[in-house]
Amino acid sequence: MIMDNLVEWATILSPIIAVALAWYTSKSGARDARKTIKSIKELADIQIRLLQIQLEKEETEAAIRHQQANEEANDSFRRMTSIDEPFYHKMERGTQIANERDFQQKRLRWLQQAKGELRELKNRLAKK
């Protein structure tokens, strides 16, 4: 008789206990998920800041190289009129300098665009 009552109570209580355990587990799982998401956002923020620093450094270097290429182009133009060397050498050197200047200018534009996209990404992450 006591055993029958015990079995009946166990039968009645086991689903309730199972539901309570499932609820507790899902609640703690959601808490863990929020912590994980917060950690991922913090890591993403650190990565973005690091990339911004690297891009700023590269942008500074590219600006310096672009300025140097401009100065070299101006110097080369002045030398073209004064140096006695074959014309095709002058033209070849002028083309190389122009290509370098164009490359550095494109690189600067790309770096500025990448910095803008990173800024936008950082803002979107901050809103969520």
Brief overview:
The chain is 95% helix and 0% strand. It is built from 2 helices and no strands. The model has no long low-confidence stretch (mean pLDDT 78).
CA gyration radius, whole angstroms: 34 Å
Briefly note the structural class of the backbone. Answer: mainly alpha
User: What is the total tally of β strands?
Assistant: 0
Helix content: over 70%
In whole angstroms, the N-to-C terminal distance is 60 Å
Principal-axes geometry comes out as: rod-shaped
Q: Mean of residue pLDDT? A: 78
Can you put this structure into words, describing what you see?
- The chain is mostly helical and 128 residues long.
- 95% of the residues lie in helices and 0% in strands.
- Helix 1 packs antiparallel against helix 2 (87-127).
- The longest helix has 81 residues, at 2-82.
- The mean pLDDT is 78.
